[in-house]
Structure prediction request, 408 residues.
Amino acid sequence: MTLRFLTAGESHGPELNIILEGIPSNMSLLKEDIDLDLKRRQGGYGRGARMKIEKDQAFFTGGVRHGRSFGGAPVSIKIINKDHEKWLYAMNPAPVDESIAEVSEQLAARFISKVRPGHADLAGAVKYHATDVRDILERSSARETTSRVVVGAICRKFLANFGIDIFSHVLNIGEIGLSESAEALRESLDYQSFKDKVEASELRICDTSETETRMKEYINRIRKSGDTVGGTVEVFAVGVPVGLGSHVQWDRRLDGLIAQALMSVHTVKSVEIGMGKAVGEHPGSVVQDQIFLAKEKIDKEFRYSRKSNNLGGIEGGMSNGEPIVCKVGVKPIPTLVSTLDSIDLETQNDSKSHFERSDVCVVPAAGVVLEAMLAFTIARAFLEKFGADSMEEIQRNYRSYQEYCLTR
Prediction:
């Protein structure tokens, strides 16, 4: 069975709903496994007031019994939107009586006709014949990424059974970058120490306190000017075995699947794997990751080593045993306090764009969402290669493949 998920729910609706199908039976799964990543998504310097309102928690509604997945059932989860209490009329699923003053006042206050550049407002209103742009805004809101983090947390738990880990860190916020290259900073610490340092940072960076201070001061200046700021995130997977994905068809290539998944995140406008666009700036002798037979087997799965990882752990559409490394460009949030030039769809006049509560910088939080999408993509590819109906059967399949790899 293919791993897949669906999400439903609006930014200010009653709740968010998630269905994840394809998780094998007998996998340990607790509420706490998900809530930890939900909390990570809500953190980060530069977040808005919504993060102070919502205390996101996952509630299983199906597919989990006594702390484990069972019987191949889809896992279903809900997250309650606490802010919905203030939107009972504007987002009520049932018809409302607009002759009641309180109802009509709230509907008028929530009505939107001034579209925001950079958002789904204009294209969505035209496509779906919406006169109130809230019909588009509510579902296109990045609140939907909460649901993706739920899916990613479950996939992360699955992958951990096979020694695969997913992580991210911030490379730059606007014009302020790290003091050293990301590779140098990663290699200066062991993996767990690197993760601990990133998690301890409000900006999710592995760098000096001076760099973090400069970034925060930059965000503060952007906030005071009524603007927003983006940045770049590096997200990677370690422990990925050789052979996930395939060269056989275009839609089975792992790099293509990863790029699509990461690109689907709301604020993302670019995805690079390994060296990314820099591969066009160097000769092949520099770019290609040359292969060496290790004198001693470097790990329990494979006995070949590389002196570089310029291609980001993927060759010919397949994982090659090296860490999968992606750099992702995150645009500034399109809802600005200062507003932008736009139009009013109702009056057909020039106007300033609509402003609704917004973040100044979501780059650190975007990293958590990107982790989720990378975890889902790798888990899906893993299950396609080793998949079975139970964890016990998958583990047998994987052990057999590990033993085979040692003979190559």
